[in-house]
Amino acid sequence: VKWYLSIDEKKLIQTYEDQVKFIIDEMTKIPHVSARRDFPSEAGQPMPRAEIIFDEKALGITRDEILNKLREGKPSIELPAAGPNSIFVNPQTLEPGQEMIITDRLKEILY
Known about the structure:
alpha+beta, 46% helix
């Protein structure tokens, strides 16, 4: 309880917003990939997350193949599927800096 009460909520939400913005900025540099801020979460939490959308036909790889490569790679990364051709990155599950690891791995897979 003490830990929860000590959290600076505004600072925490800004950290989440910064992570989502970083992911969107990095992913939209990749051809045939788009990204957007999704809000609120599916549970109705007032927290942002990034949705990364893949043009599977143009990329020559499906969302599920991308998720498998993330899972099987080093480091192993587990992300949830979103729509039929997209994934979510939820900053609530990340430590600061892990958004860079995720975008680097996605770049390795998609380039």
